[in-house]
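Let us begin with a simple case.
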Amino acid sequence: MGVHFETQAPTTQDKDSTRAPRPPRPNYNKLHAQPLPVKAYPLPPLIPHNPFSILHIAIVYLSHVISSPSSHPQDLLCAYFSADTRSFHVTDEITARTLWEQGFFGKGSLSRSEPAWLERERIRQGLVLGDTSEEITRKRREERKQFKNERARLEREAIETKLAEEATNHSHSNGHIDPSQAPDLAQARSAEEIDGQNPTSSPAALPPGRGGSPPEKEELIAIPPSAVASDVSSPHLAQKVIINQEHLQLTAEEAFFLVYALGVLEIRDPATAQPIPTSRLFSICRSHSYFPPQPSSNLVPDDPFLLSYVVYHYFRSLGWVVRPGIKFGVDHLLYNRGPVFAHAEFAVIILPSYTGGYWSSTAELQAKVKKKTNKSWWWLHCVNRVQAQVKKTLVLAYVEIPSPVIGGEEGITNEAGEVTDIGRFLKRYRVRELILKRWTLNRNKE
């Protein structure tokens, strides 16, 4: 006969009554109102039952024709190429905030994602009050951890109580166990299990936050705001200036997209501080996608940068916010609006596809293609299992690889092999999507 245990987990009201109120979150809808660092000027909507809307549309259209507003910033944003890190550095704070707030480009060199080192340092030194986004995330994770520990404790107590009741009923029916000793036996058994899991069960031996003394950082957080404000108001702290040691790092795909597709960024040579032409930047990104970097004469149509940028450009043009996916073992992560609004919905794996006749023309090319496309089902199952655990949908992005362009052919490259017409060169690539979901028996019975 099965036994059903009912436990009462701590409710949200109980949690809210024991913790301090959360600070108000920033208005992300206003902060990230522009999806890209360019401005759009759409025509007003047409209202059929309102004839003045047609007049309004005509006036706006004529004003745009006579004096067209600029969609790009007056001064181009600036970044520098770093050959050591194979990335692009944005050192200006205003430019870094612009690229992050308008499209979520790059990451802070001293932060997990958003460049917030300066803000964290000011809070750490007591110059300003409040918490950074990373601190808020850490506190919420700690709250969830404490909630789960409390729920497990209540479930364990309910089970021990139920076992004690069963022992009491069993003693009444058989007469072998004294009813007054049944709870003591259950408590002793529970104590033995706890001692077996935690040999040092004294409060002094427990780590901070698990029954012993609370961590020192939590004690600092519990200080009343008035006491902190009195320290902040001191002249010594008010006059202290912290130099920002963090810069924004852009990947090669992000930098080239901002330069070529949007035209809002220029990349400068760190040695001469001169802008790098787009065609030269294209060759630099392709060369440094290998390690060690390859010369321009050895570049092939399936360069790692080409495959990654084609997929990056494809999903960015569809409106997705594309972020690196190395944390989950994939190439890209796709966000609907951005990391501050919700988690990524899709994880993208890039797979080259050699369906053209050129790649099967010789035995050497066939062997090369087989080596690059050889993936096992075990590899695919592992990647898909990881994405299922983090509640993401795996997308296989197949990139059709064209045949190489011979020097000067079709006006795409010059005699030296450098690409001169990047638009025509990229149009030769095609992207196919395949969504792969993990099938489980208990969830997919139909």
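The second case is a distinct protein. As before, the sequence precedes its structure tokens.
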Amino acid sequence: MEQAASANLKTITTRLSYPILFNHEPVESCSWCINPLHGLLGLGTVHPLVRDTPSGYIEVSGGHAAEGYLPSRMCVSCTLDRFRIVGCEDHEIHKLEEGVGPSILDAEDAIELSMAGQADWEWCCICPCPAAYGCKRPMEGLNDEEAEIGCGLRLCESCAETMRSECQGDLDMLVAMKMSEAEGREEYEFMIRADADLLTRSGELLRRAAFL
């Protein structure tokens, strides 16, 4: 039994606080709704020891829970938004007509404007830059107005081009590539969103779907 318990322990790199509570209520306590920058920057990079349980990673030591932070909490709406993106099997990426931020902004400038209350754009789902493209693939089970929005995936110009030219439209491959590029870099937090891996098939959201 002790060996089995040890096998479930692993060290991860994250900027979120574990466990992540999906479909959390009330919405007023959603970490993503309370602070729009939570999904972009998180709480700072840590390398906690976690226990890998069927319902999610549980921090054992060395993470944000040990620093006194509450678990990262994601409301029903934010959870569903990400389920739609993960569940979209063939993204149809098109230029956005509304909610587009200045393409010349880099991530640091965009974050500074957001902190100053001057960000009126949608964000890339992969990195902390303004979105310029989005998936327009109609989603089943939605009304006509929602269906036109597509699955909800939003990408900046750089991520959209990389996904098209180097990843054959595969979102998992895009996230893995961006995380690999950012690893070990001083500007890591401005190269990849804190919650980007939640959109992958191996991410915490989809792995725990049966327990939500």
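The first strand starts at residue 9 and ends at 11. The mean pLDDT is 87.
Keep these points in mind for the review questions at the end of the chapter.
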